[in-house]
Amino acid sequence: MLHLTPLQIEDAAKALYIQALKSLPPDVKAGIDRLAANERGETAKSVLQTMVTNIRVAEDTNNLLCQDTGIPIYNVTIGRNVSLGDGAHFDGAALKAAIIRGCTRATTEHPLRSSVVHPITRKNEHTSCGAGVPVIHIDFSDSPDVLELEMIPKGSGSENNSFLKMAIPAEGIAAVKRFVIDSVIAAGGKTCPPTIVGVGIGGTSDLCVHLAKKAATRALGTLSTDNEAAALEKELSEAVNLLGVGPQGLGGDATTFAVHIELAATHITMNPVAVNMQCHSARRARATFTPSGVSFGF
Amino acid sequence: MAHHELSLPVTEADARCLRVNDTVTLNTTLFGIRDASYIALFDKGRSTRFDLSGHAVIHTAPNVRKVPVSAEHPAGYAPVCIGTTTSDRMERFTRALMQTCGVRFIVGKGGMREGSLAAFREFGGAYLAIVGGTAALETTWIEQIEDVDLDDLNPESLWRFKIKGFGPLLVAMDSHGNSLYDAVKDDVDSKRAAALARLGVSA
Questions:
Q1: Which of B109, B185, B195 lies nearest to residue A181, judging by beta carbons?
Q2: Which domain holds residue B10?
Q3: pLDDT of residue A196
Q4: Total-model pTM
């Protein structure tokens, strides 16, 4: 049995937000190095080199990689035999409250720019929190005695270029492919390329968009668990990198690290596709709680 | 592809010297502006006590720490992390920014559109591209937060930064009607068919 307290969750939620903003996962660093090594454009090479330098400066100065603290997203995966609160039950409301407190403390104690406002009044509470924010997703796993807390600060440059198309079956997979290409072209340099292009295929409209986000925030080097989708990921990655958008939209080979796909079954009348992109500063951080303690990684 | 070291403010002639693909390093002063401060100035009729004439603005809202006012921190803010946001959202304000405030340069990322290009040509100015998402590096080019106005909009206040060696930045749009973004867009449009063909899809 894994016994957790709300304070453990709160402290981790705070630490993860700050960690995610300061150090990139190794797969993303390796991804930038790989694109820099293969880039042929002179301006593009220089842009990619500046990104490499920035990662080093952020580490050397213990500073944030990017000023955009994003919309905070916490993905919680709860294994079997986990209690939170009284040692016997899992208090889900306490989990949510602890995450909100941790997110607030990261913002006020570090301090971080609160990038979150009320959507109508535009009032900023300076806590990175508000109605429905931080975004908290809760899922469950078969693994015993473990709770995973993933944090993603989703930057707005990439998030503002999110696309959904409720294509129809008669348009086939061609509609999906064309939509991905045209979404990348429409986004141009606004998403801070090179990006991870996340594609959701299937589901309902809301699930499709969620899948696209899940795909965009997946670790580089991972493949879709669906064989058809994995083959399509490779095909689309190559095609997107033929477009010449390049780093920062200034032209070049490196438009995407990879196209990632997540899928769900859909209705006989539906063929939905969504695109959500993650910028080159593809930030994420993860805390894993087990009976032996908490470990922080990516 | 010349490199220019410029101290702000600059003259119209200085601004018209710049050509796309030149690089620029800025010194002395840089003003931070973005969505809410643009809306306040140009949609809501508010004004600023800052004289932006001949100056450069950067599209930013910084991470700052509130500190006591001192010689080191005259505005009561210490910089934490200062970077650049996507410029395209602010496209419709460029003309007013140049015409009524006399701004010469916009430092931003991702590029701007034809309205801005026309304003750069008409008034004499340029768009200086910074590498988005590299704020840790950018912060090392900022010496101090000198002043702040419209601070009820914090963090989207109007900021005045003291800068040293801010760059190199890439001249991506100039006063001669040239835009690297237009050139890339034309190139990408011409490559779309090949990318779709690779996918076995008709254009």
A1: B195
A2: 3-178
A3: 98
A4: 0.96
